[in-house]
Structures are given as structure tokens and as C-alpha cells.
Amino acid sequence: MSPLQYTPLRTLIWKELRLAFRDKIMSTLAIIIYTLFIASGLLTVLQYQNDQQSRELSNKKFRQQWEAQHNNPHEAAHFGTYLFKPLNLLSAFDPGLNDYSGTTYRVEAHVQHEVDYSNAERNDALMRFGQFTLALIMQMLIPLLLLFISSSALTYEKESGTFKMLMAQGIKPSQLAWGKVWSNYLLVVFLVMPIFVVLFFVVLCSPSGIALLGRFLILLCGYLLFYLLVTLTGVIVSALSGTSRTATLTVLTVWLFSSILFPKIAAGHAADQYPLISRAAFNNNVKQGFLKGINGDAPYHERAEKHYAALLKKYGADSAAQLPVNADGLMLQYNEDYQNKVFDHYYTALANTFNQQQSSLNYAGLADPFMSLKRLSMAMSGTDFYHHQSFFLQAKEYRNNLIRKLNLQLASHPVKPNESYQASPRFFLQLKDFSYQAPTLLETLYLQRLALGSLCAWIALLSMALYFITKPSLQ
Questions:
Q1: pTM, 2 dp
Q2: Which pLDDT does position 444 carry in this prediction?
Q3: Are 396 and 112 a contacting pair, CB within 8 Å?
């Protein structure tokens, strides 16, 4: 196709954009959208600063408490500490599961905690309606406005009688349809790109900006692909509808089903197909597994007695007082290791169920591109299930290593009967802080390959549908 054949399409696009500006459609949408963005942005910034300040103060406080201790190492293990999942600007853009799954992990001896203390637990409105964020506007409100605009693109031409005039000038139905697609798409791109540009510079200037840049660009591409998909949907509905009223009702139904109903149905189906046991039942399994043993192991008291006897035999001693080590520390660590083994045993089955649920939702995203966008957005923001799981596993490993160091420190200092070893602050000072390493961009992209594939496949499918629908529906 020669460049001259693109002239009608370019003329149509330019004409639609001029009409949008002349009819004040652009200014009206801009006022609505930027008002929402400003309100959401202010709330997001305030929430982010509050959460970040709270984390920094808490980390500093807990660190000072550790460094100031002059205590028995195992008593310090009972005192414990808290670990916080680091925040970044993208997680503020799309909080994802953070508000519901929590971002805080409790470190404590003898107990394996889960990530907890979610914002939704303390906020009934958040539990019911979700947080008013930039991602919510991008995912829900912008597509709704775009559907309303694009759904009347072709019906307006038919109702106003200008369609036949355009055909008489030699414009093909497919050119008219694609002119509507690109003009409406560019209209929304012009509106949202300033927001993304501001986000780009904010992310770039943040402490971890370089590391987040790749994620931000993938996020931007995902939203732009989704808006093109939404525009195609609206124009196809417009081509198939006889009136603008019918088209508006149709796209509203499509939006409600794809954005609200289907995701809830898919989540409910995943939960029913791969049910999870309750937290109380899981904790009871871990407790009973430790007391009674798993995989044919002896109960708690028999295991402890056998290990104690082996310890005496190893050092050729008749009692704990003759040992060159502190038996309490070694016994505590032995029981800790077995409890970790029991926890991992039951958690493996639980993690498999979580993964099955996530896999089900990934495949559901193939049928609903909105779900694919939402999952891609959470993944790039570091607030999806896989990032939550990554934080939990790293926090658990840190907890196990910390408790081991405390118990072994106790074991390395034998004491006389009725005495207790007190570790100096110097020992607690050398204990390292928790450092969370988020999954790499390539790992995250691989996990979200179905989401990206879904968006691209739906665009290709709707493009072909528009080609075949346009001619017969516009005659």
C-alpha cells in the first residue's frame, strides 16, 4: 500500500481530533480525569510518606532495642523483632495485595509467623471498596470513559446522516472505522501520557529509580496496549449497534462484566477448585506435627531425650555440667530445626495450593484482558502474590538464621548450674539487618507471560474482528 492511500485515514484522524477539541470533549475529559488524578495522587503521596516514615521509625527503634540489649540470647529471641517489606513508588501507584496480605513479618523464637498486619484489617471501607489509587483510575475509570466515547463513534455518523456523505467521498468503511479507533485512542493517550510522564520523572528521581525504570516502562506498555484494546472494543460495538443508546448500554455491560463480575467469578472458582485450610487449622497441624512427629519420627519427648543422649555421648560426658558447651542452646536449636522442618512440610502443600490458584487466575486472564492488565500492573509494582511470597520466604529464612545465631551463641558459652549467660551489646550489634531482594524484571516478566500474551492476542483478535465486521455492518 502506497503512502498516498493512507491520506484518507490521516484526514479522518485529524478531523476527529479537531472536533474533539472544538466540541470541548477534550477539555471536559481533561478536567474530570486530572481532578481525579490530583485527588488520588495527593492521597497516594500522603499514604506513601506516612507508611515510609512509619517503617523507618520502626526499623530504627527495633535496631536500637537490639543493640542496647544485655540479655540471654534466647530471651532476646523471644523478644524478637519485626521485618517490613520495603516500599517503592510503584507499589504506591498500585498497592495490589499489600493492603490485604500485609507487609509485616514477626520474628520470634518457637513460632513461625505469616506476613500480617494488613491495612484492610483496620479499615472496613478499604476491605469493601479498595483504596482510591492511581492504578484504580487507570484500570477502571479511564477504560469506562474510553468505552463511552468510542461506542458512539460510528453510530453518531449513522444517526447524523454523515456516513453516506463520507462513503460518497470514496472513504471505505474500514478506513472510517480505523480512523475512529486511532482518533479515540490518541485522544486518551494525550490525556494520560502527562500523568505517566510525571510518574516517570518521580520514579527516576527516587532512590531506587534506575532499578524501577524497566518495570515502569513495561507498566506503561501494558496500559497503552489495554487502552488500544478497549478502543477497539468500543468501535466494534458501535459498528454492530443501530443507535448510540444501544451501544452505550452494551459497553456498560461489557465493562461491568469484565472489570467487576468476571474477576470475582474467577477468584471464587479458583478458591472453590483449590480450597485452602484455615490459618487456625494450619497452625494446629504444625503444632501437632512438632509434638507427635512427622514422616514416622518419634514424638517430641522421645526425640529430645535421644538427641540429649547423643550429645552426651559425643562429648563423653555423664551430665550437662560436664559438657564443654551449653546444652540448653543446642537443645533449643535442635527443637527449632525440627519445628522449621514441620512448618516447611505443611507449608509446601499450602504453597502448592496458592500456586494452583494463581495459575487458574492467570488462565482466566486469557478470557478477560482486564484481569491480565491488573495482574501485570501488580507484578510490575511488586505487589502481586509472587512478590508477597518472595518476601515471606526471605523473611522466614532470615528469621531461621537469626534464631540459629542466637541459640548457637548461647550454646557456645557454658555456664555453671543456676547461672545464666548474658550476651553483651557488642554481640547484638554485629547481627545484620534484613535485606529484601525483589524478583528480577526477567523473572517477573516470565511469570506474567500469559498476561502480556493475552493483551497482544486480544488486540490481534479484535483487529481482525473489526476488519470483518466493518463492511457488512456499515452498509
A1: 0.88
A2: 94
A3: yes
| Torsional sign, CA 322, 323, 325, 327 | negative
* Number of structural domains found in the chain: 1
User: Which own/partner pairs from 267-273 qualify as long-range (CB within 8 Å, at least 24 positions apart)?
Assistant: 267/361, 269/360, 269/364, 270/356, 270/357, 270/360, 270/361, 270/364, 271/357, 273/356, 273/360
H helices of 80-172, where? 89-93, 98-101, 124-129, 134-136, 142-151, 153-160, 162-168
- Is 385 within a domain? no
Q: Which of 280, 394, 293 is nearest to 341 (CA)?
A: 293
Find where cell 506476613 sits: 115
Domain of residue 466 covers: 3-23+138-273+454-473
The reported pLDDT for the residue numbered 3 is 44
Q: Which parts of the chain sit beneath pLDDT 70?
A: 1-9, 15-17, 19-26, 70, 118-130, 159-171, 471-475
- 396: which 3 cell numbers? 522466614
pLDDT number for residue 421: 81
Return the pLDDT at 1.
39
Element at 81 (helix H, strand E): strand 81-84
Neighbours of 78 (CB within 10 A): 14
CB neighbours of residue 164 within 10 Å: 10
Burial of 442 (0-12, 13-18, 19+ CB in 10 A): exposed
Apex CA 376: angle with CA 373 and CA 380, to 5°? 140
**CA nearest neighbour of 172 among 395, 336, 1:** 1
For residue 181, tell me if it sits in a domain.
yes
Which three cell numbers, joined as nine digits, stand for 371? 484481569
Assess if residue 235 is contained within a domain. yes
The cell numbers describing 241, all together, are 449497534
Q: Is residue 73 part of a domain?
A: no
| Burial of 197 from C-beta contacts in 10 A (0-12 / 13-18 / 19+) | exposed
Do the Cβ atoms of 187 and 416 come closer than 8 Å?
A: no
CA distance 199 to 35: 16
